[in-house]
Amino acid sequence: MAIIIKKVSSKKELKTFIRFNYELYKGNPYSVPDLYDDMLNTFHPKKNAAFEFCEADYFLAYKDDKVVGRVAAIINHRANETWNKKEVRFGWIDFIDDLEVSKSLLDTVARWGKERGMNMIVGPLGFTDMDAEGMLIEGYDQLSTMSTIYNFPYYPRHMEQLGFEKEADWVEFKLTVPDKLPEKFVRISEIILQKYKLKIKKVTRKEIKTQNYGQKIFDLINEAYAPLYGYSKMTQGQINQYIKMYLPLIDLRMVSLVEDENGELIAAGISMPSLSEALQKAKGKMLPWGWYYLLKALFIKKPKVLDLLLVGVKPEYQSKGVNALLFYDLVPIYQQMGFQYGESNPELELNKKVQSQWSAFESIQHKKRRAYKKML
User: Fold this and answer.
1) Of 42, 143, 178, 314, which has the fewest Cβ atoms less than 10 A away?
2) Cα–Cα distance between 207 and 109 in angstroms, integer?
3) Is the dihedral angle over the CA atoms 217, 257, 169, 149 positive or is it negative?
4) How many angstroms separate the CA atoms of 142 and 63, rounded?
């Protein structure tokens, strides 16, 4: 039977689009489902601030009247202007192991992009860097995280068969929380504090509201991440959205800030308990009991694994060892809270500055993911 591609044009079809991933990976021990309500907000032009500079459509693939694939077609005009490119992104792509299906989905995105003047198709990428990106090419037997993509091993094989090439790779690390910080690490951290007249700041809820620390953190992330592949600076609308969405959920003990002698923020590290197992138990839904599993993981019985969500350092301090100060502060807290391992977020393969910060810890690169490209 022929593959039929249909643009999502109703609430029912959008629900089918979101839940297809869960249905495809149902029972898989490594896949972590997205929260349905979060995805509804992500794909809604009035609820996702990225639509200030993005346009998108979503497509479903049918075979024998059954849904067999999905894909989002996205143009991030802000990123294209920043990097002087004309790229259409494919994101949230899933498909059964049928080359006709993956080809039909990607051809649809290519045509959609070409109609809008684009000359390259890249992905998987989201609206911005704050969305999950990169197709898993190593680590299929590792538990995914709430902020990354899990996919079957046949996905990259399809990409290569369809003529796509490597655009960028990210690596991820599993880090062991040490019983004790190495003396050398402690000594260097204390020297850096004194040499550059820095101080570690533990922020309170009141300070976030009265001293605008949420804004300061995301302004720093914008500055630190600006040179990274495909990054487009967050708008004020996005920053407001992320402050409202995420900061209330963060245990502030797991946030470390570094300020200079004038009180200017120069580094930030944000981490939280892993929600991977809780999201699996919730099956991507808050009701009836999803909320309980998530709150339990966040505030009651924390898992043994934590996620390192964001690490950002002001560019002029990135080669001065300031990253070490974040973990000088955080590792003893991780120990007290009973964490045994940490999961890094995806880090660009070529970003050796970021990867060097793990040299003081026992770590293993356990996952790798790739963005693909193809000329139109």
Assistant:
1) 178
2) 45
3) negative
4) 31
CA-nearest of 188, 238, 43, 65 to 126 is 43
- Residue 186 has a CB neighbour count (10 Å cut-off) of 14
User: Which amino acid, residue 261?
Assistant: E
- Helix and strand counts by DSSP (H, E) for the chain: 13, 14
- Residues in CB range of 74: below 8 A, 6 or more apart: 54, 55, 56, 88, 89, 90, 91, 125, 126, 127
Is the CB of residue 116 less than 8 Å from the CB of residue 61? no
Q: Tell me 297's DSSP state.
A: I
Q: What angle do CA 168, 31, 152 make, to 5 degrees?
A: 60
Helix or strand or coil: residue 214?
Answer: helix
CB-CB neighbours of 187 under 10 Å: 11
User: CA 37, CA 200: separation in Å to the nearest integer?
Assistant: 36
Residue partners of 191: CB distance under 8 A and separation at least 6: none
Buried b (16+ CB within 10 A) or exposed e, 332-347: ebbeeeebebbbbbbb
- Residues 137-151 have pLDDT tens digits of 999 999 999 999 999
Kindly state the tokens that stand for 213.
Answer: 């620390």
Structure tokens at 269: 């590290």
Residues 263-315 pLDDT 10s: 999 999 999 999 999 999 999 888 888 888 888 888 888 899 999 998 999 99
* Strand pairing category for 305-313 and 341-344: parallel
State how far the Cα of 40 lies from the Cα of 32, in Å rounded to an integer.
17
Distance of CA 15 to the CA centre of its chain: 22
